[in-house]
Structure formats: C-alpha cells, structure tokens
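A quick word before the example. In earlier lectures we treated sequence and structure as two separate objects. From today on, think of them as two lines of the same record. Here is DNA/RNA non-specific endonuclease domain-containing protein written that way.
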Amino acid sequence: MPSYRRRNKYLIPLQSVVLLVKNGIHGSHFQTFQETLRMSTPLVFTLLFCHLASAMVVHDFNQVELCKNSLYMGTPPRGFTSPTLKKICQFYADKPRYVTLYDPHDRIPVYSAYTFKKTEGDRRVDYPWMYEPQLAEVDGNGNMLPFPTGYLHMKFEDSQAVLDDYSDVVLYERGHLNPDQHQSTPHDRAATYTLTNVVPQIREFNIGPWREHEERIRVRLNNFCRGTAFIVTGVTTTGHAIHRNNQRRVGIPEDVWSAYCCTDYDRNAPHDVRTLFPAHAALAKNAKEGNSIHEMTVQELESFLIGHINVDKNLQIFYDNCRAPSPLPVYLQHTI
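And the structure line, produced from the sequence above:
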C-alpha cells in the first residue's frame, strides 16, 4: 500500500513524486509534476527539494536551478543523444560552478560548459585533485571531493578516471576543459581541478598551442566582452586509450575544440575583432606535431563535429546560434 499525504480532498502518492525526480522531470511528466507540487504538503515538498539538491549527476542540467547559469540562455548544446552520457552539475563548496557532459566508458568529459570570469590570467597549481562521488552513488551532498590519501573504493574507479590512471603516463598531461585561468575566485578555480573536467593532452600540445589559445581567448573576452561570456570546450575521440594493469582506462582525445558566445560586446572594437563576436570557435589536433589552432565560425565547428562524434545532425552548441535574444538598436546595426 503506497504512502499518501492528504491535502484538502487530494491524495498524493509520495513514491510517485520521488519517481518523477529520479527519472527526470521532462516531457509529459512535467504537467503531472506541477499538479503534484500544487497538491503537496510542505513535508513532501521539503523531501522533494532535498532529493533534488543532492542529485548532482542529473537527468537534465536545469534540474538544479543554478546549473543552467553556466549555459547560454540556460540551454545545453543540442544533439548529444547517447543515453550512456552523464550530466554533472559540478558542485564545489556547496555551490554549482559549471556543468560537464561525461562519458563513463572513456572516463573523460565530452565537454565542459562554463561562464568566463575576467581575470589577470595568473595560474594556480596547488589545488588538490578531486573526483565526483555522484557518478558512483547518490549519497552525500553532491560536492566533488579531494582524492583520499588511502584507499578509494572500486566503485569510484569503475565510474571515472582516478589519479593512478595518469601517474605513470609520460606522453600525456591532465588538460583542463574549463581552465583555471578562465576563473577568478579561489573556489571557482579549485572546482576546475576535478578529473571529470580533464582529458589526456599531449604535453607539447597542452603547454604550447592550447595554452596559448586559452590565453588569447582570455585577453579577447577580458577586453571586448561587456556582458557574460559562455564557453563550451570539448573533445573528439577515435578509440585510443590509456591502459593500466592491462585494462582500458581513459580515452585519448583526437581533437580538442572550444566555442564562446558573448552577445554584449564592444561594438566600437576594431573590425577584425568585431568579426569574432558574438560567437567564435577553435579546433586543434591533440598531437605532438601538426597541432596548430584553427579558428572558425561556430557553424563550421558544428559541421566538423557532426562527422566526427556521436551527435545527430541537429547539433547546436549555443541556443539559436548565439543570437542576441532581442534585436539591436538601429543605430548599432551598422557596426556589426
């Protein structure tokens, strides 16, 4: 016999509320969810909120209200349809910092999406590396945690990369998708040091062309983006992987790509800069040689990705191609 809570003349099965949350509130479930909330007692609502607040590996990034703040118009990239991918709301110190679409098979992120914070670009490397407990269990408060100095249960190692996967690897470094130099506060920077935000990058590529690109984008957005800049950075793979103890562990990216969207930018900037707004993208090979950065339009990047990763033909990195949600004043239209 299911548990019920009574309000006025309505009877609400509490198990149904929990199932709605666990399975994700979407599609035809949403109307039912709204009606359930309208009829629920404060106790049911409190239980529901607590469950939502602890579920940081989520069905939808919008499931946790502040997660969508990392996405342009609150909308994640469209076209990533694989049911095995995990959506992580990256929580640190009880606050969502950015979002990651994670591949538990390759044990690397497909992409991380974040808001750019203006910064001087100084680089900190003394933050502890962390992992995401929610990939293995639903207990806890949803925060990423530092790797313990002792034993880490096998269930965590099965669900994601761990420090040992990188310890004896000479060719590759842990390359951030959301880099610390694109964040400003200590907590936002610390939150980038989770292995769910990094991929194996060839050392020469990581410290050379890709770091130079991250710095170039930092300076560009610092100087010419007046509002909020949204960045999505991801990878393509072709099946190569780091092995440990004769087991396939961590996928190795073939390419690294990135795109930004800033609709509120300096329209008095030089023409060669204005052409890089409101959105622009970049692509490079994760290789020792032939790894130069190719800047391109976001649509050109999307065309490339449709042929190189598991997405459908409707792939769209930014909602409505990063068009400003309202038309520009007539006196500004000539400056684009």
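Notice the following. The two ends are 64 Å apart (CA to CA). We will return to this example when we discuss secondary structure assignment.
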